[in-house]
Amino acid sequence: QVQLVESGGGLVQAGGSLRLSCAVSGRTFSSYAMGWFRQAPGKEREFVAAISWSGGATYYADSVKGRFTISRDNAKNTIYLQMNSLKPEDTAVYHCAADPGPRLPVNYNVADEYAYWGQGTQVTVSS
């Protein structure tokens, strides 16, 4: 079993910053690609960012490009999502996801491509 646990969510004013963390434990693979997705009330889960095992490949949704940064520390089995210039529309539950293998799935922005998921952490941005 693989466990993913997110942390770092909270309430912040528009324009503020938060850093989310996702710790991976349990049966760890030699390598795995990771992604962040979010889901707002009444909306579908949507892609936010993704990163390959090496960190050499990163991708972002257009809505967060230039404001969010995904990174990872493989020695700590942890990935991060630095979120700056937050907007009320960023309010959602943020989930991290893992896919075994060094490379990101071809459809890295599709939730079904990821095998393991965390429970999520709530991010609320007030206007």
Structure description:
With 127 residues, the protein is mostly beta strands. It is built from no helices and 11 strands. The chain has strands spanning 2-7, 10-13, 18-26, 32-39, 46-51, 58-60, 68-73, 78-83, 92-100, 116-117, 121-126. A hairpin with a 6-residue loop joins strand 5 (46-51) and strand 6 (58-60). It starts with a strand and ends with a strand. The model has no long low-confidence stretch (mean pLDDT 95).
Question: What's the arrangement of secondary structure elements?
Answer:
Blueprint: E1 2-7, E2 10-13, E3 18-26, E4 32-39, E5 46-51, E6 58-60, E7 68-73, E8 78-83, E9 92-100, E10 116-117, E11 121-126
Parallel strand pairs: 2-11
Antiparallel strand pairs: 1-3, 3-8, 4-5, 4-9, 5-6, 7-8, 9-10, 9-11
- End-to-end Cα distance: 40 Å
Report the C-alpha radius of gyration, rounded.
14 Å
The class by helix and strand makeup works out as: mainly beta
Q: Please provide the ordered H/E string of secondary-structure elements.
A: EEEEEEEEEEE
- H/I helix tally: 0
Spans of at least 5 consecutive residues with low confidence: none
Largest sheet: 7 strands, mixed
What is the arithmetic mean of pLDDT? 95
Pick out its properties:
single chain, 127 residues, mainly beta, 4-stranded antiparallel sheet, 11 strands
Give a short synopsis of this structure:
0% of the residues lie in helices and 51% in strands. With 127 residues, it is mainly β.
